[in-house]
Amino acid sequence: MKSPVEKRSVVVGGHKTSVSLESAFWSGMKEIASGRNSTLSELVGDIDANRAHGNLSSAIRLFVLDHYRNSNAVTTTSDNAQPRAFAPARLSA
Could you tell me the domains of the chain? Predict the structure, then answer.
């Protein structure tokens, strides 16, 4: 059985390093980098430079989680549709 964690090599600050992440996080990183017109290595370098503590894999996971939480919050608050109140359908007797 294949491991859900994928180990990949990336260049960070001119140095090659390996990072282990689940495939969903790799996909998220690729999507974020593409949206920023950036390479995966540049994005990992930015995350590495700005992390306060912890290992790089954890910092990347937290970055991806924060990115999608923030983009979901923006989408939710910028949506002009008003929430509809739930009213159960009446059953005829």
Answer: 5-70 (1.10.3990.20)
